[in-house]
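URGENT: need a sanity check before tomorrow's submission.

F., can you look over the Phosphotransferase record below? I want to be sure the sequence and structure line up before it goes out.
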Amino acid sequence: MSGRDTTGNRAVGTARTDTERSVETALAAIQPWHGKRLEYAPVLGGLQNSNWRITVEGTDTRYFLKIPGAGSETFIDRALANEAAHRAGVKGIGPELVHFDSDTGVEVIEFLEGYRACTNGDFKDVAIPRQIIDIYRELHDGELLTVTKTMFDMIDEHLAQAHELDVKLPQDIELILGEYQVAKQALLASGLDLAACHNDPMPGNFLVADGEPMKLVDYEFASNNERAYELALLTTEMFYTEELINELVEDFYGRADFGLLARVQVCGALADTKWGLWACVNQQLSSAWDFDYHKYGCWKLMRARLKMSDPRWPFWLKAL
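Structure tokens as predicted:
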């Protein structure tokens, strides 16, 4: 008996690989499912985590199981991620949270039937970022999360990790970090506009379905952060033109004066600095990644320096 049925699911108890055995171990720890027949199948798309679709005997609902990848705990506060995911589920902008193991970080949410993950191609449709802004407004509304971790905290943390791990950074890193310090002081002097933020606009984190509202998933990097940084992450991730950025700033804030535009532009440079350092550190943590994180990180840092060398950079800083 292969353990694999015609739907592509594998029954618990028939694991053949270490990866499948890790899934069965995670499922065995979910008390409400003890004694029930469970089946699992891989879900593609995660960069660091192992993702699975779970079918439980006696229920029409299927579930999504996420097993954290080795080394990911270096960057992720699992309890905070769980708090943010739970809040999103209650607000209806994310799937319902079903199970969370604080020791292992294993998480189970409802499987959103009929939904698919966005791709970079989807983001060429301007309706997509406008839907995301609607989600961000809902996410940012209300009380803050229990933990504040700003883009400055993130960048400084990655700098410490890079030093500790002896990570190779680009030769011009001191120039980038010099401008980072200037931007940090300017933003802190202006006062941060804190909100409960998602902090990770990878296309696959946005799920869409015909006739259904967009959903936002994967709250591993969530924290209280500068509101403008949330929008800046989106616009830098998707290479949006300055014209579209200006339109999205107006959608996001209800106005688009020079001060707000400058705030998003400066935060965009910090977003590339943060994720550039993150990627370089991430490459050092594991050789198992099927992705050149160091090359990606150096490219992000190069783009941060490009924005910092824009003739308008000092005017943006002054406008904060």
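My own read: Residues 273 and 301 are 5 Å apart (CA to CA). The chain has two domains: 10-110, 116-319. If you see anything odd, call me.
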